[in-house]
Design goal:
single chain, 327 residues, alpha/beta, Rossmann fold, eight-stranded mixed sheet, four-stranded mixed sheet, 7 helices, 17 strands, 24% helix
Length: 327
């Protein structure tokens, strides 16, 4: 049996005894099997690149390693598929547009806390390839993939730190729906199995930022992105000295509190930290066309209708807001 995979529209068909499975983009590969039929015809290839196979056999993507040519922010790049793992680069268009504007405002290192599979890394390197990037990620499965992503694109001035940021040096369980799930968390109070259709757990290392800072390139940190699925309070507590020193622009995800007392309490502590650092909190409205964001306004963490915020040092607030207005 011969399966031919082509990237195109989502459909499947048979021609001259060959099963064609059309998926996305512009790469093709072949798979041969011999003897008795190994796989049934029920194969679903979706955007997340997962495959369901009935009969004998596991997930087909776990067998194949291949590269997909893509374009992001007008630049060509390679998206590798490794052991069934693949980064999705098409989301959060507002971030690409925001970074394009902010990178004109300030040079310096981009510190990415909670890299996952490199969604923000790809944006940074296709917008400003020469910018120093430091990515902090505790999940070893994500680190495995990120190393291939960086190598495939020959991205320079890129440092990976295989740990998470926390208030102390420790080991904690990272819990999520699958091995590289973007919503995985280390916070015990958010490890509710009802959040996930499946349940995956692994021990991961975490360190204070003081420990990490001793091992990373010594440079001015101009930007920090924090996306740590509920651990924002501990990360911000650990970063306070660095924020006082560098006064970076901070992109921060904080869940809406939805009248949850635990989330309200944690968000209140976060807002107190931000105030003590003399930072302003702004949110915006996402729109469906460039620049994909509008109406920057003062906000309160946890009380907005969005999960995404930008934190600005008050001494530079008006200047940065001006830089965020597309010309």
């Amino acid at each position: 049996m011969l399966f031919v995979f082509e990237y195109g529209q989502k459909c499947s068909y048979t021609k001259k005894g060959i099963s064609y499975l059309n998926v996305e983009n512009s790469v093709s590969f072949l798979m041969y099997t011999s003897g008795i039929i190994i796989f049934s015809a029920n194969i679903e290839f979706i955007n997340s690149m997962s495959i369901t196979l009935k009969g004998t056999g596991d997930h087909l993507l776990g067998i194949f390693n291949f590269n997909i040519p893509r374009k992001l922010n007008g630049k060509k790049m390679i998206v590798p598929v490794k052991s069934g793992i693949k980064v999705t680069i098409s989301g959060e268009k507002w971030m690409s547009e925001m970074l394009k504007l902010l990178f004109k405002y300030s040079n310096g290192t981009f510190l990415d806390i909670g890299v996952n599979l490199g969604q923000t890394l790809a944006k940074v390197k296709t917008i400003d390839p020469g910018r120093n990037y430091i990515g902090i990620e505790p999940n070893p499965s994500c680190i495995f993939y990120l190393q291939h992503l960086i190598k495939a694109n020959n991205w320079q001035k890129t440092t990976l730190v295989p740990t998470g940021v926390y208030t102390s040096d420790c080991l904690l369980n990272l819990v999520g729906e699958h091995e590289t799930h973007g919503s995985s968390t280390v916070i015990d109070d958010f490890k509710d199995e009802s959040r996930f259709s499946e349940f995956f757990s692994k021990l991961v290392p975490l360190m204070s930022f003081d420990t990490i800072e001793n091992a990373i390139p010594d440079d001015t940190i101009s930007f920090i992105k924090i996306d740590v699925e509920g651990a924002e309070l501990e990360v911000m507590q650990s970063l306070q000295d660095a924020i006082k020193k560098h006064r970076p622009i901070i992109l921060l995800e904080v869940w809406q509190n939805n009248n949850d007392q635990l989330k309200i309490s944690r968000a209140d502590k976060l807002n107190d930290i931000v105030k003590s650092l003399n930072y302003a909190v702004l949110s915006w409205k996402e729109i469906g066309h460039p620049p994909f964001f509008q109406d920057l306004q003062d906000s309160i963490l946890g009380e907005s209708e969005t999960d995404n915020f930008i934190l600005l040092p008050n001494e530079n607030k008006e200047e940065i807001i001006k830089a965020l207005r597309p010309s």
